[in-house]
Amino acid sequence: MKIFEVTAGSNSLAGLSSSERPRPEPGPTEVLVRMQAASLNFRDIAIVRGKYIGGPVTRDTIPLSDGAGIVEAVGASVSHFAVGDRVTATFFQGGPSQTLGSPLDGTLAEYCVFDQSGLITIPDPVSFEQAATLPCAGVTAFNALFEGKGLRPGETVLTLGTGGVSIMALQLAHATGARVIITSSSNEKLAKARSLGADVTINYREQPDWASAVLEATGGKGADHVVELGGAGTLPHSYQCVGYEGEIKLIGVMTLPDGDLSPYPLMFKSASLRGIFVGRRHHFVDLLKAIAQTGIEPVIDKVFPFDDSIAAYEYLKSAQHLGKVVIKFN
Ligand SMILES: NC(=O)c1ccc[n+]([C@@H]2O[C@H](COP(=O)([O-])OP(=O)(O)OC[C@H]3O[C@@H](n4cnc5c(N)ncnc54)[C@H](OP(=O)(O)O)[C@@H]3O)[C@@H](O)[C@H]2O)c1
Q1: Which of 36, 80, 164, 238 is exposed most, by the fewest CB atoms within 10 A?
Q2: Residue 277 alpha carbon to ligand 1 centre in Å
Q3: pTM (global) more than 0.70
Q4: DSSP string of 68-113, one letter each residue
Q5: pLDDT at residue 195, as a whole number
């Protein structure tokens, strides 16, 4: 079967190439899936550049955590799935260190084998391409909004940038009846975000003091929820514009430390900072239900054919996208 793999020790996109491996056979509790679609996350660029947790991959690894497909065969003890079922895989396959795309082989292969405990049925209205956008970015957005200080209608959500996690957070928050503030480096992307339901848009390049703009837009109160996708460089600004008893959901790692990272501003607002590592299986099940029920359509910016997977990586790296970049299998 055709696959893509990240070569052991890879520290740049040149370490990603197409290759062949034998089609895997499912063990007793495993399911063989013929992949239909996969999607890219910021993490996948970090992995091929050798910048992800633990450094460069130590063996040739099939990349990507996110994918969806059709069950091709099942092991003798599989009870939850049958041939022909539409399925998607969870980011964690077992414990918190067992993540697809590194260290485990991921979804950028014509066929993948998963334990049945690591698969979820895709509800009918959700397409393979849409389902493939959800295991990492969608589940992270869902966990960010509905766990911890769970989002309530009428509250204000601030989300940073217009990448995969942020746009799903915007769509979920809007569908819940929240007021959504979103930032971007691009006015064109902000216009698209408005068409998806954003109430307030702020260009963080034109307004480097975007936290003050958030305070202004909320009458000085600040945001109840901050989906913190920037990381150490944006965190001091998020401290400034999170509201009383608000919650900052610490997710992103895109910026270098900048400003005062002391958490004391949170204390005087009784606000909190919650670390997030994607989410659990039940978050994904609930997210799929929510998407099927609300009719939210995950935003797919561009679809690349499987053979052009390297071009898909280059496109994500260029950060021209809004929402998700998807790969469709032949
Ligand atoms: N902790 C976890 O479990 C978890 C899970 C998923 C993702 N993440 C992290 O979350 C971040 C986003 O991931 P993703 O897959 O959604 O990324 P993505 O689709 O590649 O989106 C990246 C976007 O972030 C925006 N951005 C870049 N620098 C920014 C800044 N200084 N301030 C505000 N926005 C900025 C840009 O939006 P504009 O073009 O609009 O400016 C860029 O297009 C990454 O750091 C990723 O590693 C963490």
Answers
A1: 80
A2: 14
A3: yes
A4: EEEEEEE-TT--S--TT-EEEE-SBSSSTT-BBTTTB--S-BSEEE
A5: 98
